[in-house]
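Try this one yourself first.
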């Protein structure tokens, strides 16, 4: 079994199509890709995909294989990144990643903790969707990330903040007259739901709706806050989103708190436990300074 087999398998699993994976991800021919997948299945000894006229779907065996394949590829990428860094020991870089929008609050605190190290290191800052931050940490592209506790990655997570969920709505919606929104207010309203890509947020929202016996039919699934705000404004729907949305609201969207005890979602710092960066260890030793409320 070769690494290319794993890369091909993951590409097909994520696109759900041999043709799309071949043309848009792997830049190879569809017949060649089909042969590679068949070779992989022969080596594993079971079918990893079920084929139909609509495309391909993972079998139960394929779903079990997917997490391990991703982890193996991430470890290979992390090893390569570590080797590249070791070849340039004179240049110390500390790479920070943020769930987009969270850097507004947490980057100044992180830089304050690193202030004594700044003359000796270069700090790079990136922002992505939370699963992409987790993937970059697993692959050694980032040293530390502020994200959700994404499942399926061999990472260490520490909670830095628990954000309450709040309700987003169009700025001229009738519910803006309310000081707080109750479960019953969602009835009959278009609802914008977090997609499966934003799995952690999706599960928190789903649990709140189920616990309060709220039946909604999501009209759209979104995987990031910008998309959620755009759809709230354009469809005149409601959405449940973390409170950091207040930092990014356009004029066309407003927020209101939930009545009672609102559900929360954890913001964590994540890191690869195999990362031996002294700067990372220093940051983790002073993590309490990051989590303390600003004066």
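Now uncover the answer:
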């Amino acid at each position: 079994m070769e690494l290319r087999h794993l890369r091909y398998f993951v590409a097909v699993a994520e696109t759900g199509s041999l043709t799309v994976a071949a043309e848009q991800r792997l830049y190879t021919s569809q017949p060649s890709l089909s042969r590679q997948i068949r070779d992989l299945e022969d080596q594993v000894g079971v079918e990893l995909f079920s084929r139909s006229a609509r495309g391909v779907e993972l079998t139960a065996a394929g779903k079990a294989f997917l997490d391990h394949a991703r982890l193996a590829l991430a470890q290979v990428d992390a090893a390569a990144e570590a080797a590249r860094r070791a070849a340039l020991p004179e240049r110390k870089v500390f790479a920070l990643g943020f769930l987009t929008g969270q850097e507004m609050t947490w980057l100044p605190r992180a830089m304050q903790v690193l202030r004594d190290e700044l003359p000796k290191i270069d700090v790079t800052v990136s922002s992505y969707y939370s699963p992409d931050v987790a993937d970059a940490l697993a692959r050694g592209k980032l040293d530390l990330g502020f994200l959700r506790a994404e499942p399926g990655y061999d990472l260490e997570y520490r909670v830095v903040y628990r954000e309450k969920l709040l309700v987003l709505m169009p700025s001229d919606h009738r519910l803006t007259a309310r000081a707080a929104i109750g479960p019953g207010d969602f009835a009959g309203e278009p609802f914008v739901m977090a997609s499966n890509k934003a799995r952690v947020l999706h599960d928190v929202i789903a649990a709140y709706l189920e616990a309060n016996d709220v039946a909604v039919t999501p009209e759209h699934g979104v995987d990031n806050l910008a998309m959620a705000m755009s759809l709230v404004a354009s469809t005149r729907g409601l959405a449940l989103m973390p409170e950091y949305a207040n930092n990014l609201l356009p004029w066309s969207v407003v927020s209101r708190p939930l009545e009672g005890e609102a559900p929360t979602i954890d913001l964590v710092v994540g890191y690869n436990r195999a990362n031996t960066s002294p700067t990372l260890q220093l940051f983790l030793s002073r993590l309490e300074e990051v989590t303390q409320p600003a004066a």
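Discussion: DSSP finds ten helices and eleven strands in the chain. The two ends are 56 Å apart (CA to CA).
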